[in-house]
Amino acid sequence: MIEVENLNFSYNQQISFIENVSFHVGAGEIFGFLGPSGAGKSTLQKILCGILRNYQGSVNVLNTEVKNRDKEFYEKIGVDFEFPNLYGKFTGLENLRYFSSLYDRKSLDPLTCLERVGLGEHANKKVADYSKGMKMRLAFVRSILHQPQLLFLDEPTSGLDPTYARLMKDMILEQKKEGRTIILTTHNMHDAEELCDRVAFIVDGKIKAVGEPLQLKDHKRAVEISYAYMDSEVMKTGKAVLANLQKDELFMKQLQEGRLRSIHSKEPTLEDVFMELTGRRLV
Ligand SMILES: Nc1ncnc2c1ncn2[C@@H]1O[C@H](COP(=O)(O)OP(=O)(O)OP(=O)(O)O)[C@@H](O)[C@H]1O
């Protein structure tokens, strides 16, 4: 679906910003770009969807070197960028009708799309009067309107309240179920963990690691557990090393004598792993 080999890109022709980036994305995958602000996530997306074309190396998307993309390429991709480009003087419905008229492919029904993201009752309101979250939802359905094979989503849950963020995540997973490939840009590790089959850690225009969230987290396993136990009517706590649990006399004694009341292990988050591998925080 996507093959990137030795990609280099610079905004000012002097200092290379994206450096020697290579990765692939398989059909049907949700692939995440995870990194702090300014890491180059949006730049990479813009290269992949043919907006920035003065790159070196090879960027093959849907069997097209994106430098040479044509109109047909845009029939197959859907793009939802962080700052949605919508027509403020048109209503939500007029926006979707206009965008669907740009494609040769059969589009989804605009009103049904609006209803799906809770904008049905605002279909005839001017987009200039929409809130940021409403614009985000409109931009998302605009990107899936023509049922593209490949979707680029840039921070699709940013600015949304928890209910709509949930709805958006469910819709993204639905798109995957329908066979679409999705490139998801985020600095939200929870979204990345929940949605992505694989993620790329991006810092300073470079990919520092790629893998499945669980596999990346396995790199930094929980090392210690804490537990609580009853000792002569008094609740006490203890700590033990996970790998040596069977040799920990105090822990084993409480276990065997049935006095354990709780056990907790501190699981690493994707952010912990990100920090360990890149030396940087996500935000
Ligand atoms: N058009 C441009 N001209 C020059 N520099 C740019 C341009 N667009 C982005 N940059 C620079 O490229 C770097 C990466 O920006 P980019 O938008 O790709 O980061 P990002 O990881 O998407 O960040 P965020 O999470 O804040 O959106 C930043 O230093 C930014 O200032």
Structure at a glance:
The chain has 10 helices and 13 strands. The chain has helices at residues 41-48, 71-76, 92-101, 110-116, 132-144, 162-177, 189-195, 213-218, 249-256, 270-278, and strands at 2-9, 18-25, 30-34, 56-61, 64-65, 77-80, 150-154, 181-186, 198-203, 206-211, 224-231, 234-241, 260-265.
Strand order of the largest sheet: 6-7-8-3-9-10
Strand content range: 25-35%
Task: Report the mean per-residue pLDDT as an integer.
Answer: 90
Tell me about the biggest sheet?
Answer: 6 strands, mixed
Radius of gyration: 23 Å
Approximately how much helix is present in the residues? 25-40%
Described by the principal axes of the CA atoms, the overall outline is globular
Helical/strand content category: alpha/beta
Order of helices and strands: EEEHEEHEHHHEHEHEEHEEHEH
Report how far the terminal alpha carbons are from each other: 30 Å
Total number of β-strand segments?
13
**DSSP helical segment count:** 10
Which small compounds were modeled alongside the protein? adenosine-5'-triphosphate
Write the layout of secondary structure elements.
Blueprint: E1 2-9, E2 18-25, E3 30-34, H1 41-48, E4 56-61, E5 64-65, H2 71-76, E6 77-80, H3 92-101, H4 110-116, H5 132-144, E7 150-154, H6 162-177, E8 181-186, H7 189-195, E9 198-203, E10 206-211, H8 213-218, E11 224-231, E12 234-241, H9 249-256, E13 260-265, H10 270-278
The chain binds adenosine-5'-triphosphate.
Domain ABC transporter: 2-229
Organism: Anoxynatronum sibiricum
InterPro entries: AAA+_ATPase, ABC_transporter-like_ATP-bd, ABC_transporter-like_CS, ABC_transporter_ATP-binding, P-loop_NTPase
